[in-house]
Design goal:
Layout (H helix, E strand, L loop, with lengths): L6 H9 L3 H23 L2 H18 L9 H23 L22 H20 L2 H11 L5 H8 L3 H20 L2
Helix pairs in contact: 1-2, 2-3, 2-4, 2-6, 3-4, 4-7, 5-8, 6-8, 7-8
């Protein structure tokens, strides 16, 4: 069954012409990849554009794909590079606004059986967390989002961001400490 096959094997199958392998990869990684891009750029329409571009880049690169690292490391590194290129182009044109979050907390899925008071608390905490994540320095925010949204290890975060594992560990530790401190404030 393809659901049990590794991402790397699926990508090799896709390289060989198996479109079904691509569909499985897309379903597995669309949510985390989109959230990673959204948290980095802060704008849903820009994140959607970047998201589509990354998948198009993957399609274009399929014939050159070789297993040199985990598929997810390769995918998120591609996404990160594309985001950086986009940011540079926008910065040069003066059109980039990284603080314009248009994320709607109503889109965050919660269990329907919860009471209104609980829902209000969840929304308040989610809003606070989004604000705190937005306030993190870029390197710390990126490490945190890669860990929480992408599920990457410290070594994978280091590889994606091009730093050594100790630097990735420090960035993640500082980010978590700042978020905990911010959430603990009354």
């Amino acid at each position: 069954m393809k659901g049990d096959v590794s991402d790397e094997t699926l990508m090799q199958s896709y390289r060989g012409g198996d479109a079904g392998a691509f569909e499985i990869l897309y379903v597995r990684h669309k949510g985390g990849l989109y959230r990673y891009l959204l948290r980095n750029c802060g704008n849903a329409s820009i994140a959607e554009e970047l998201f589509q571009d990354v998948w198009m880049k993957l399609i274009d690169a399929r014939l050159r794909y070789e297993v040199r690292a985990k598929f997810t490391t390769w995918l998120y590194q591609m996404a990160r590079n594309h985001y950086i290129d986009y940011y540079r182009r926008q910065k040069m044109s003066g059109a980039f606004n990284p603080s314009a979050y248009d994320c709607n907390l109503e889109d965050i899925p919660v269990r329907p059986q919860e009471q209104p008071q609980y829902l209000a608390e969840v929304h308040e905490q989610a809003d606070m967390l989004i604000q705190l994540i937005d306030q993190l320095p870029e390197d710390q925010r990126e490490a945190f989002v890669l860990r929480e949204e992408g599920g990457f290890s410290l070594n994978e975060i280091a590889e994606i961001t091009g730093v050594n594992p100790e630097t990735a560990k420090s960035r993640l530790r500082y980010a978590v400490n700042k978020l905990r401190a911010g959430l603990a404030e009354p």
